[in-house]
Amino acid sequence: MSKNYNFIGIFSLIFAMFIWGSSFIALKIAMVDLGDFTVVFFRMLIASLCFVYFIKRFSKFSFEKNDIKYMLLLCMFEPSLYFIFEIKALVYTSVSQAGMITSLMPIITAMAAGFFLKEIVSRQLLFGSAIAMIGAVWLSVQGSMTVLAPNPLLGNFLEFCAMVCGAGYTIIARHLTEKYPALFITAIQAFAGAIFFFPLFIYEYYTQGVNLTVDSALALLYLGVVVTLAGYGLYNFALTKIEASKAAMFINLIPIFTLILAFLILKEELSIEELIASATILGGVIISQISVKRFKRKNRKIV
To answer: How confident is residue 70, by pLDDT bands cut at 50, 70 and 90?
Structure first.
């Protein structure tokens, strides 16, 4: 029975990573017809509407002032700053390259955990991080300028900033999940995101208008429902079957799925140099995450 549960957990994780990898494709498609912040606002709004059903259940939770502070900080990191950086990154770089930069997320999170949660950072992690960073810089420099990727260097830097925000979110979420379920935290993010991006949507509406097409509408529905509910739902379900430290390893599948989908759907291609740089990033990430007591948590309390 345990093996079956592990198999189900692994399958859930792989499918969740596939969904999250496909979110880059959906964003790029939606951004062809709609303004950047309009896309994010409707994604958050659709996700919020999906969580309305759970409001009665959420109202039973009691909040402490200290928790509210962390929730506000959480929402500032993600979705607010995270999506500002990511949506702008996709304006300047290709989906393939942005997807590869996401593989730095586990490393950045590990470094942040070492600083804020007092987890031990091994030499192996530092070495792997250095290799991955070299690969990321190499990928950005080698990135070829196209109509859909006019400035890969800037775009990849913005995607890196998004990953830093994602790391900040992960650290705070790790603290909050000790008191609140993951579904509630995801709902808070969706509602906060809809509120935060509403003024930006209004600005774009009056300056650019809204050109909602069938493709962009389907992309928004996919982002709001499938990516948010199915993606997070499968990931949270998998965490009941597999240890969190092992589940984190599957995040490295996101850039691979993104690369494949960008090639099949958007017809994006990477040069030999870009493929080597991508392999360097993944190699550094793998080196940093191969076991040997990578982390030992001394204190989970956030100071």
So the answer is: very high
